[in-house]
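Morning. Coffee machine broken again, so started the prediction first thing and wrote up yesterday's gels while waiting. Chain of 111 residues, entered below exactly as on the submission form.
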Amino acid sequence: MLTLASDIEVLVRFGRALADPIRCRILLALRQAPAYPSDLADALDISRTRLSNHLACLRDCGLVVAVPDGRRTRYELADERFGHALDALRTAVVAVAADKTCVDAEKEGCC
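Came back before lunch.
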């Protein structure tokens, strides 16, 4: 049974997904069109095993869904509004000082 996530849970899940560059690349690729894992791995130039791990994370976060297609499985964004959110985030202006860098997620004070 599916339950609806709270506003905070949605943002946390989105943030967790976007915290990794490979997952960002996957989401942007799926923003363009649904895809099969083998095609995604080739397009993103990563191993199928690595892609599979990232797709599992994105599925667990509820951002992508696996759609059976005969003997294959196609992946797509779970909600078309995620694509619009990705576009808005991608084109947003981030205000940063020239002498500041974004700290790693594992360190204190991460942006």
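The two ends are 34 Å apart (CA to CA). Going to sketch it on the whiteboard this afternoon.
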